[in-house]
Specification:
34% helix; five-stranded antiparallel sheet; alpha+beta
């Protein structure tokens, strides 16, 4: 029985033609991969003439810390009238600058521009907690002076 080697069987010119087809196909695939940028880093698209990149974002400057204040009172009754109950009024230390200026009590600390809201909230707490039978319903300010509280 004759042994046929598949590699050498048939027409030699047909084998060479097949090799050319395979070679061309492989080159074509390689060429397409090169055009597609296979495995390469992508480059950004060119910027059209006359167009510029947007400027970098500059962070906003830091906000100033909030300001807090407290009222100074000569009499405890004035502080209680403003804030609803005596537990919110603190005795001024003897010999302190505020005491030398005539203040005997400090009211509670509140944020700038929120005095009325703080006053209303503390008056509600005084009623709800049973610290007072009644409180003033209007905004009031019987303080002598106000001072800024520094942290």
């Amino acid at each position: 029985m004759p042994v046929h080697n598949a590699r050498f069987s048939g027409d030699a010119s047909r084998d060479i033609g097949m090799n050319r087809v395979c070679s061309c196909a492989c080159l074509g695939i390689a060429w397409m991969a090169a055009l597609a940028g296979c495995g390469g880093k992508e480059t950004p698209p060119p910027v059209a003439a006359g167009k510029t990149q947007p400027p970098a974002v500059i962070p906003a400057p830091p906000k100033a810390p909030p300001s807090f204040f407290r009222d100074h009172y000569a009499k405890l009754e004035d502080c209680v009238y403003d804030w609803g109950y005596a537990q919110k009024c603190i005795a001024v230390p003897p010999g302190s600058p505020a005491h030398q200026a005539g203040a005997n009590f400090f009211g509670p600390t509140y944020a700038r521009n929120y005095r009325e809201e703080t006053q209303a909230q503390l008056r509600r707490e005084a009623l709800a907690g049973g610290y007072a039978q009644s409180v003033a319903s209007d905004e009031s300010d019987r303080s002598m002076v106000k001072s800024e509280v520094r942290p």
